[in-house]
Amino acid sequence: MLGCFCMTEQRTRLSAAARLTKWLVSGPPFVFLLLFFAAPALIMVLASFRYPGEFGGLAPLAAADPSTLHGLTLETYRFFFSDFIYTEIFLKSFLVASVTTLICLVMAYPLALLIARSPSKSRDLMVLLVVLPFASSFLVRVYAWMILLGPQAAFSLFLNTLLGLFGMEPVQLLFSSFAVLAAMVYVHLPFMVLPLYTNLEKHDPALLDAAQDLGANAWQRFWRVTFPLSLPGIFSGSVLVFIPVLGMFAIPDILGGTGDMLIGNLIKEQFLGTRDWPFGSTLSIMLTVAVLACVWLAARLGGRGRRYV
Amino acid sequence: MALLELRNVTRRFGDFVAVDNVSLSFEAGEFFTLLGPSGCGKTTILRMIAGFDMPDSGQILLDGKDLADTPPEQRPVHTVFQSYALFPHMTVAQNIAFPLKMARCAPDEIRQRTRATLDDVRLADKAENYPRELSGGQQQRVALGRALISRPRLLLLDEPLAALDAKLRQDMQLELISLQRDVGVTFVFVTHAQDEALALSHRIAVINRGRVEQVDEPSRLYGFPANRFVADFIGHINMLDAEVVEAAHGHSRLLIPGLGEITAPPLAGLAANSKGAFAIRPEQVRIGLHSEVTELKNHFPGVVRNLLYGGDVTVYKVQLANGPTMEALLPNSAPGRAEFFEVGDAVSVGWRHDAGVFLHD
Amino acid sequence: MSKGAGRRGIWLWAGALAAYAFLYLPLVIVIAYSFNDSRLNAEWVGFTWHWYDVLLHDDDMLAAALNSLFIATVSSLAATVLGTMAGIALHRYNMKTLTFMVMTPVAMPEILLGVSLLLFFIQVLNLTLGMFSIMLAHITFSIGFVAVVVRTSLAGMDESMFEAALDLGATPWNTFRYITFPLILPSVIAGGLMAFTLSLDDFVITFFTAGVGVSTLPLRIYSMIKIAVTPEVNAVSTLLMLLTLTIIVLATRIAPNLLRWRA
């Protein structure tokens, strides 16, 4: 397209003019992202090895007055491991992410299956309907749950009346782990539906017919044919849910109680509250490592699922 | 001087040699075909002529001038792609006019020449349609018109008939022949279908694993293949391992294991005991009852093992006593089952003393 | 559909319908209560336009809205240009570093990008947080989105078309001008529209890069939620939903492939 070259799997040989075009096209976004994505990331890695400044922020690398804190240190990492509560918050975040992913999977699967099996004209509409709630701001979707779970809302009243019948204490749904989980699932459900439906759409219907022909009942057909073939889609969807949930802070912040702090809240506290930027950076780096580990794991496991196809 | 010349052209992809020291020359006005199996390098050669790839070594010369520094948009060579590559957002007329527009021709000239080309490819009534509204054959004619309108020196065609069904293919083959004759442009045609190559070309280069096996006109390629590969690739052939007994004036004698000695066409300068293969086309092998083939120099008894009825001909697989199996072709000149043999029949096969070729290994 | 689908079909439909209801119920409630003549988001009292009236007289809210629109316009334009270039480069050339830098901001938790940019702006660039920093942040995460949309549309095209253009005498620039650009234009526009909504709706990254002086609509909504919830929030949420809804539907009309997800 741009320039003279040979599209082979193995090598590209570009003329001088084509090389220039390549840099003209890829240059601007490359430079921009280098500046506003790569550089900040590196700065953050560096920041995790520094001392906190006197009034917040970072302490200087070199100081005129040798008595003030300066230079590089492993202090923040030591600090992280010194109190178990930090690790506990990480573990809790993993737990929330896992549970959210699982619930999303269970809720999304029937929907994705239905979309995949519908005639293609209605399929686009159905997908659009799944995506449309996305049109509202993330905050609005979280706020909606504030209303739904409010003490005077129908659902809470109903639940509490029910509990009252059994002689149990009324429950506060809002500002609880339940609220956080509900909103997490709600916000991320489309991310599970789309990859799943994309995968299921590609399944050959003849496979199910063949299975039925050979004596499999409905459950067996699902469990032994559809489900294994859908594993790559399940993995894609899971990654797309798990990772954002891991780093989420807004939902616990708005809907959670005091005990529902997750990694994201902790990071936010460090940067905007206590202004201990080195520690905040350390936490961010650890979150990044956790995310990368998940992606790597998913790639390994998802690849195994591909053996079935 | 040849119109286009490839001199010792080599192209490697890592360790894989796609084009291996190929030298070819293309004359003005001829229909030249690059024929070979998939992956043999013929498309790579085409792309290097078009300018989408550059040889690692060797030269490509047009009218004697090296094309090395000329990008595709400046070469007077146009390509008809396998997928036709029509621009979906432009009408047929706009597609065809595209090269003239790129060459900054005057609007009047563009209009006039587009109309002429539309007439040439018989699509004048489809000028304002979009490619997606056309059939496969029509799309291909648009691709042809588009490539020919700016009167290139050379037209490259990359398996353009591959996507068409059998009947349409045949029609398009005839169209291509007349188009090339009328327009006079040199066609370089790439295909893996040997029957197509035989039907369309003035000359054919058979290519295998990046090397040119033989360059010749179709009938000579068919009748006098240079080696086992060419013999086997083009048409059907019986290939029997053979050894030279003597190569005298006017004829040669070959020893075929399991059959004995046969008389074959004269061989130039080959020593006795040279090993190779005796190749003979099924239509040159007569099949009949014993009495019917005794007049032929080479005849052997056998049993019919299998047969393939083809409507116009029947191919018999005959196992010769103690020997190899050979294919013999019998035209079904009479309708119905006259002159038919069945599986298990005792028959004899035979061929003339000057039929077949010996392929030296 | 396989035979004997009748019984299983019921379960499937039930599950799917439940999922759809789950997706829409909360939003329906927000919209409904925006017309509720009551200070509390509790039970329905009566229909009123009152909260919308309050909204239109809320100067802070209007300022935030203006900011949001301005930021969204500028950042989506820049992201569209840069993202289109990135999408073309990603499709055409095998550049691992660029691929990594384009795709990661989309895949990583937003908080990481927000926090690292905060660090970068203050510590390295000594930049006062405000409109400009927000715009830079929004461009960063939108580039990846536009790039994927453009790249997907290019991947679906017959590659030999571009070679054909060159072959027939078009220079690389003319190939882009007459062939590539008209064909990717729908995706570019759709990508730009999506970038616009992403910027309009963004909360997390804006939260960290906005600083004190500037407010956007989501930030305003957030402070209202945290401090005192009034149905005015429902009203502004409904309007925001309406706007992004219109834009998304428009985008999918222009480029139907937007919904064909390629993970």
Give a quick rundown of the structure.
The complex is a heterotrimer of chains A (309), B (361) and C (263). In chain A, helix 5 crosses helix 7. Chain A is 70% helix and 0% strand.
Would you kindly provide a written description of the structure presented here, covering whatever features stand out?
The complex is a heterotrimer of chains A (309), B (361) and C (263). Chain A is built from 13 helices and no strands. By secondary structure, chain A is mainly alpha-helical. In chain A, helix 10 runs antiparallel to helix 13. Chain B is an alpha+beta fold and 361 residues long. Chain B folds into two domains: 4-232, Rossmann fold (3-Layer(aba) Sandwich), CATH 3.40.50; 236-360, RNA polymerase II/Efflux pump adaptor protein, barrel-sandwich hybrid domain (OB fold (Dihydrolipoamide Acetyltransferase, E2P), Beta Barrel), CATH 2.40.50. In chain B, strands 6-7-8-3-9-10 form a six-stranded mixed beta sheet, with helices on both faces. Chain B has a five-stranded antiparallel beta sheet with strand order 13-12-11-14-20. In chain B, a hairpin with a 3-residue loop joins strand 16 and strand 17. In chain B, helix 2 packs across helix 3 and helix 2 (92-102) packs parallel to helix 4. The longest helix of chain B has 18 residues, at 166-183. Chain C is 76% helix and 0% strand. The longest helix of chain C has 34 residues, at 59-92. The mean pLDDT of chain C is 86. At the A-C interface, helix 1, helix 3, helix 4, helix 5 and helix 7 of A face helix 1, helix 3, helix 4, helix 5 and helix 6 of C.
Rg estimate of chain C, integer Å: 22 Å
Q: What do we call the CATH homologous superfamily of the largest domain in chain B?
A: P-loop containing nucleotide triphosphate hydrolases
The largest sheet of chain B has its strands arranged as: 6-7-8-3-9-10
Q: What CATH first level of chain C would be assigned?
A: Mainly Alpha
Mean pLDDT of chain B: 90
Largest sheet composition of chain C: none
Mean pLDDT of chain C: 86
Please provide the ordered H/E string of secondary-structure elements of chain B: EEEHEEEHHHEHEHEEHHEEEEEHEEEEE
Count of individual beta strands of chain C: 0
